[in-house]
Amino acid sequence: MKRIKSDLRKSNPIIYKSVFLILYLFRKNRASLKSRKRL
Asked: What digits encode the pLDDT tens for the residues 17-29?
């Protein structure tokens, strides 16, 4: 798994970064939605 990630980073850093950003934003949105439900 780690090797595949490093290969992706070397071959196409733009795609790797965009995927990472999407995952990050998705988690952030989920967290904010949970906090809103509590309030």
From this structure: 898 999 999 999 8
Examine the pLDDT at 7 and tell me if it is beyond 70.
yes
Integer Cα distance of 4 and 12 in angstroms: 12
Helix, strand, coil share of the chain (percent; to 5): 90, 0, 10
Identify the CA nearest to 5 among candidates 25, 19, 26. 19
Using the structure block, give the residue that is written with the tokens 């998705």. Answer: 26
Are 16 and 9 in contact, with CB atoms under 8 Å apart? yes
